[in-house]
Each structure stands twice: as C-alpha cells, then as structure tokens.
Specification:
7-stranded mixed sheet; globular; alpha+beta; about 170 residues; 9 strands; single chain
C-alpha cells in the first residue's frame, strides 16, 4: 500500500463500505450524512459511504468494517465484501471502497462522536456525532445525495449486481 502524506494531521487515504439491499424500489444503498455544524445545512452532494482513515496497522477491509460499525452502531451488519476499487474525492482524499449486503435500520443510528471548537475561535469545545443521519436511497436518488467523488461507486455496484440504471 502506498504511503500518503498527511495534511493538517489527517490521512489522505480512507476505506469504506457501500452497503446495499434489495428494496421495494429495487437496489438501494445506505449513505450517511456527516455530523457537526459545518454539514448541518448541507444535503444534496453531502452524503457519503461510512468510511474512515487507514493507518499502517490495518488493511483497508478491516478499516472499512470497523468504521461501518463505529459510524452506524452495533445494530448494523454487513455481509461478505466485494471490492469496488478506489475513488478520489474533491479534496484529494482517496477512498478504497467495498460493497456488501447490509442490514441496518436508520432509526437505530448510534454514531461515535468527535470534539471540535465551536463556534470557531471561541475557545469552546463541543461534542458532535460523526454521523447525524443514515438513510437507504435508490440508486438514482443516491446520485444526487452523494459526494461527487463517490458517485462512480454506484456504477461499479450496478456492474457487480448486473443491473443498469439511467444516469
């Protein structure tokens, strides 16, 4: 695995899971909305697959499974994983993605949290959920909700699933 330089102490390589299921609307995918004040009023183009930073000690699949549980909570389950390859997000972060059949009720979301100074330059620290919402979307609606750099993952999932959808 290539070593990535860190900027601002953050890794530029993550791994995550695009969970899917067969629903009433056909193939559906599970996306999460980032928590915290920066994302509060953003919706279209803000949702993501559950993912987290890779360090030297873990494989991408280990990180993807760990982050899936941390961001969704103990009720989330995922089956065997298939690789979807790598995408690059707008800020340069690379994401190694996997797909698998998932089982999760968004009403049971229990995300891990992070601390951040809020309001900015106030000296006050607040705790926020890493993920504030999770939802199952059909493929075409997911295209409008996902970060633009992750949309290719939907087409890769469709290719694996043997389905097609208009763009």
């Amino acid at each position: 695995m290539a070593v990535m330089k860190k900027t601002s102490g953050r890794s530029m390589l993550s791994a995550g899971i695009l969970a899917n299921r067969k629903g009433a609307r056909g193939l559906e995918v599970l996306l999460v909305h980032p928590g915290g004040p920066f994302w509060r009023k953003k919706d279209d183009g803000a949702w993501s697959i559950p993912k987290g930073e890779i360090d030297a000690a873990d494989t991408p699949e280990q990180v993807a499974r760990r982050e899936f549980g941390e961001e969704l909570g103990p009720s989330a389950s995922i089956g065997p994983l298939q690789p979807l390859g790598e995408v690059r997000q707008r800020g340069g972060k690379r994401v190694i993605a996997f797909s698998g059949e998932g089982h999760f009720d968004p009403a049971t979301l229990t995300s891990n949290t992070f601390d951040s100074e809020w309001p900015p330059r106030s000296g006050q620290r607040q705790r926020f959920p890493e993920v504030d919402r999770a939802e199952w979307f059909d493929i075409e609606f997911a295209r409008t909700k996902m970060l633009s750099g992750q949309v290719d993952l939907l087409d890769r999932l469709l290719a694996i699933a043997g389905e097609s959808a208009g763009k």
